[in-house]
Amino acid sequence: MAEIFKELGAQVIDVDKIGHEALKEEAVKDRLRRLFGPKIFCQGEIDRKKLANVVFEDAEKLRILESVVHPVIKDKVLKLIEACSDVVVLDAALLRRIGLAELCNVIITVKCDEAKIVERLKKKGLSQQEIQRRLAAQNDIVEEGIVIENNSDLASLRNEVVNLYKRLLEGGVGG
Question: What's the pTM?
Answer without folding.
Answer: 0.85
